[in-house]
Amino acid sequence: MALELVGGAVLGAVVGELFKVILDLGERAIHFSPVLKNISFKLKAIIPLVNQIDELNEFLDYPKEETEKLRDLMDEGRRLLLRCGDVKLGNLDYLKKPFYTKKLRDLDTELRSFMDILMLQMSRDQKKNLKSMNQLMEILCRIDSRGGSSKPVDLIVSPCLVPQLQEETVGLEKPVKELKVKILKNEVRMLVVTAPGGCGKTTLALKFCHDKEVKDIFQGKIIFVAVSRKPDLKLIMKNIIESLRGIQLPDWQSDEHAFCYLELWLKQTSQKPILIVLDDVWNGLESECLLDKLSQMPCCKILVTSRFSFPRFSESYYLEPLNHENAMKLFLRSASLDNGSSKLPDEETLEKVIGGCKRLPLALKVIGRSLSRRPTLVWRVTGRNLCRSGSIFDSEKELLECLQSSLDVLDDKMVTKESFMDLGSFPEDQRIPASTFIDIFTVLYGEDENEAMVTLHELSSRSLLNSATTRKYDDEFYEEQFFSQHDSLRDLAIYLMNIEPIEQRKRLFLEMDGNDFPKWWVEQERHPSNARLISITTDERFSSSWPDMEAPKVEVLILNLQSRTYNLPGFIKRMNNLKALIITNFGCFPTEVTSEDNQPFNCLQNLERIRFERISVPLFTNNQSLKPLRNLQKISFVMCKFGKTFIHISSQISELLPNLVEISIDLCNDLSAVPNGVCDIVKLQKLSITNCHGLTSLPEDLGKLINLKKLRIRCCIYLAELPESTTKLRELVHLDISHCLDLVKLPEKIGELHRLEKLDMRHCTSLRKLPSSIRNLKNLKSLTLVCDEDIAELLKTVAPRLWKQVKVQEEEANLDWLCL
């Protein structure tokens, strides 16, 4: 049994060798038996500890300095014991017994001392871990209540936060109780909530997660993951582990590595139960692999919502439709008929509508809101049309036909209805940035961004869309506003699109599984399309060459991708009418986008808007044959990688983009400087650089942008100052320098910005002095500050007149967008 304690790891092996020497000595060292027993006892206690330390050091790549002393001690002890084994009775060596006995006792003392140190180190490490977790919780609480910490941190906000319930639920009290009884049993590891789409499975899961008893049991360790039809297992596991550990992790080489890491981490650290909610799991090999692996994780309870039951892995809970009473209550609330502000339709019509919705929460909410304050005739027509459908559970088609009634009432608002259809362009369960929709809307419908936002909010008010913002104090900054669509509503947009023949469709949505193209596309050598919008979605396995396509009328091209490298379709060159190009990588790391001749945009002279997200920027190269994009008005970069080429061709930027009106750069951490060439784009009106933590300076020639109206340099935490030439921006009306933590001063002549109407200096914590010229800001309507009374006091001293207009406003943070 003793030999089983001997480890084979690096440090454990050294300790094990010493223990083995003691066993091998046997009766040869009987003269030293008492002290050897003491040493043997301590080694038995040390071996399991050092083996564990070896595993963790190797796995976590920790330094090994603290255990080097023990390694030396073991080597010295092994040599000492071998010499003791040679001491025999009656031999002159026996005279050496006192000497060796003292040496062995010294070894025993040192082992005891090391054991005490080892226990202290383990206690220290545990307290360090506890302190880190406490700091993480404090940071999250600070972010949640105050809109962000005053200093940057390396810890991350959990990517698997449980979304808040957007509104009061109806009829879920009983299902929540039944779920608790089932899933909290010791023998139950996984429970699947199953029902057709639109029955409220996700809402039930959220209600369960926010239940007080559930939160007390799991004590904050609740993970919520949207899985969808084509799950990326590595990304899902990465998000789960990052949510549990609170730190950012590298990309995994394989799914198996991710599962092994989670299992090992849970075994080492987990003492309290963890609840993992997997929302919207579809049938398939990837999903079965995910369920199989997670069901084996220690200390985990798995709650699954799905349209499938997965009997091989767990028992199921079938979510029934609402009863008639609750269905009526939800519908009346959605149609604004529960507060007496609107006249109730006749009972027969009301019953027809509710019956046609088949008591499904999604249908009740969507159709209820679509009929709110509509004429009685519209109610009657809708009720008659809904009653013609069969059972909503016969097929998904029945649900889609039911939801279609909510769009029929938008016939007098065709742009809103068409915009709903456009939203099907984005992958399932992915958040939709408002700024991306604005690019599509302005091109297709010729309206401005304000009209686009009105349309989005109207769709949201009708429950055709969910909305969230990262912060709620700046309605004009659309990069912080996001939307999402229920899977069934996205299916409705696709269903309605597919009714028409391919050649006649206004929009074309193509989703590839690996390298499998739709048959109709492959069968014809050059398939024609008259669509104005084309969306092509590929996954991380895509690596094929593109079939050809003729799309002369396309104005918006959306490329959704996940692979590390991506070759642009060659047929883009013939899209002469293309006005908006949106390339979004939904993977973890920037995609390297290439084309056959490295000139993907030379033929796209009508381009007005370009948006890149998680892309290694392909536009800015040293290629001298690039043609100017004279019609380009807006270009956006989100989480992109620029590299050095962006700086190197600064002299060409104004020539390539002579009529650019807006530049937006967000979350691009490798952007260390803005090229001076940008300052030569004299028509530029909006420049937004946000959350770029690598940015340390702005061009000295910034003042050359004589038409600039909005300058937003938000959350660039290492930017020390604004160039003095900023004061030459005489058309500037909005200056936002909030969360620039290292900003130490403003330009001395800032008072010359006479048209300035809004100056945002939230969290400029290093700003200790204001220039006296600030009192000359005559048109300043509001100076908005957050949690920075010191700056307000400075302003009171320097410019008492302006101080009276100061609005000290708390910034309301909202983390729901992370869960869209």
Note down, in words, how this protein is organized.
It comes from Cucurbita maxima. One of its GO terms (molecular function) is ADP binding. Residues 1-153 form the RPW8 domain. One of its GO terms (biological process) is defense response. The protein is α/β, with parallel strands linked by helices and 820 residues long. It folds into 5 domains: 2-126; 173-318, Rossmann fold (3-Layer(aba) Sandwich); 412-421 and 431-491, Arc Repressor Mutant, subunit A, CATH 1.10.10; 500-641, Alpha-Beta Horseshoe (Leucine-rich repeat, LRR (right-handed beta-alpha superhelix)), CATH 3.80.10; 667-680 and 687-820, Leucine-rich repeat, LRR (right-handed beta-alpha superhelix), CATH 3.80.10.10. 38% of the residues lie in helices and 14% in strands. It has 24 helices and 26 strands. A 13-stranded parallel sheet has the order 9-11-13-15-17-19-20-21-22-23-24-25-26, sandwiched between helices. Strands 2-3-4-1-5 form a 5-stranded parallel sheet, sandwiched between helices. A 3-stranded antiparallel sheet has the order 6-8-7. The longest helix is centred in the first third of the chain and has 50 residues, at 97-146. The radius of gyration is 33 Å and the shape is globular. The two termini are 55 Å apart.
Q: Find the count of extended strands (DSSP E, 2+ residues).
A: 26
- Specify the CATH class of the largest domain: Alpha Beta
Number of helices: 24
Residue share in helix: 25-40%
Based on helices, strands and strand pairing, what is the structural class? alpha/beta
The whole-number mean of residue pLDDT values reads 76
CATH superfamily of the largest domain: Ribonuclease Inhibitor
Q: Please tell me how large the radius of gyration is.
A: 33 Å
The CATH topology label of the largest domain is Leucine-rich repeat, LRR (right-handed beta-alpha superhelix)
- Give the termini separation: 55 Å
Number of domains: 5
| CATH architecture type of the largest domain | Alpha-Beta Horseshoe
**How is the main sheet built?**
13 strands, parallel
CA-based shape: globular
Physical arrangement of strands within the biggest beta sheet: 9-11-13-15-17-19-20-21-22-23-24-25-26
| Percentage beta strand | 5-15%
- Uncertain ranges: 1-10, 133-155, 390-395, 812-820
